[in-house]
Amino acid sequence: MEKVILYKNSQVFDVKIQLASSKSESNRALIINALSGFKGDLQNLSSARDTQTMIRLLQSTDAVADVIDAGTTMRFLTAYFTATNQAKTMTGTPRMCERPIGILVEALKTIGAEIDYQKQEGYPPLQIHGIGEQKSNEVTIRGDVSSQYISALLMIAPTLPQGLTIHLTGELGSIPYIKMTLAQMQAFGVEAEANWEEKVIKVAPQSYAPTSYQVESDWSGASYWYSIVALSTFEDTKVELFGLKENSLQGDSAIVEIMSQLGVKSTFTKDGVLLTKVPAQNSLTWDFTNCPDLAQTVAVTCVAKGIEATFTGIESLKIKETDRILALQNELAKFGGSLTEVVTNTEYKVSGSGFAFGSADISIATYDDHRMAMAFAPLAMLTDVTIEEPHVVVKSYPSFWDDLKKVVSIEQPTV
């Protein structure tokens, strides 16, 4: 089994990190640019495997589109290939084929798409045949499962002969990601009408205009550095993260406010944001509905600092790269922490640690999940820690271990 050993940080550090680019922005920009005839100029695209997979599949003429484990790529390309009438088989890893896509497929069928499930109904692999004619210009879709279904429909909406009106039901999750999609569509010349109170988004038929688009650095990737600063035992610790904007489109920029309560001050500079240590509060209550990808990082930080926390809005973690709720429960227990469901599928308690850091080895399983590896890596501020299957970070932040070497010693033992 591949693994890396991270040795406890033993000195104060002041480092500058050029973060990976946002794969969320990159993946949307790639789809929109493709719908613009591939004529735009996309700058600072993410090196993450998910984005590189998107680039490869957009350029491919193969009949099979294998997204590997990229959920966003699966959802966005399902809508894109359908709207552009490309006959494609959509598939991925065994885990990818266990992740539901029925909500999106049924919405596309309402519009007029011909899509067949090749195995289990509601799940990949899919056979896409395209849209013969548009049967409806309105769809109703749940807003509390995955915003990526909604974004996938929004991006193809202006290319449909009748446009599209999307009615959202239930609680709306990850609204910042929907707003990100709308803002990027606007950057390419497409206007939409969003009424959040009535939960309706209308997009008239119109054409995307090729443009030059610069992708921001990744706030999800930034979150691990916030955790590193929060857990550092040296008060003079400083980390400057390049390429981040104060007024970001990314929902995960919420990490600024979350970590201000966990001991990290953010000062925006001309190049990004400077992180420094401040006193932490003794408790945290946070709704992760709009930023579920931050939950693992924040949970680890709270447990390691002995901060009691209440989490809501993390139901979607069960259908991510792994069941992240179960994975967190398993791994937090290794250093005295717990994640307890107190209201079914609604509210969770994160309990602080009674673990004497440095007293025993900690080995973290990553469950083929990039965020498990990176969320637990900051424990190296307090103790030696082993991260199993560290290669998983290529999904979103390929240079993570190289960047981490600026603050801790890393050994990759011979297997």
TrEMBL record:
Superkingdom of origin organism: Bacteria
Catalytic activity: 3-phosphoshikimate + phosphoenolpyruvate = 5-O-(1-carboxyvinyl)-3-phosphoshikimate + phosphate
Keywords: Amino-acid biosynthesis, Aromatic amino acid biosynthesis, Transferase
InterPro entries, alphabetized: Enolpyruvate_Tfrase_dom (IPR001986), Enolpyruvate_Tfrase_sf (IPR036968), EPSP_synthase (IPR006264), EPSP_synthase_CS (IPR023193), RNA3'P_cycl/enolpyr_Trfase_a/b (IPR013792)
Protein's pathway: Metabolic intermediate biosynthesis; chorismate biosynthesis; chorismate from D-erythrose 4-phosphate and phosphoenolpyruvate: step 6/7
Ranges of residues in domain Enolpyruvate transferase: 62-404
Stretches assigned to coiled coil: none
CDD domains in the cross-refs: EPSP_synthase (cd01556)
Pfam families: EPSP_synthase
Main EC class the enzyme belongs to: transferase
EC number: 2.5.1.19
SUPFAM superfamilies: EPT/RTPC-like (SSF55205)
Family: Belongs to the EPSP synthase family.
Name of the protein this chain belongs to: 3-phosphoshikimate 1-carboxyvinyltransferase
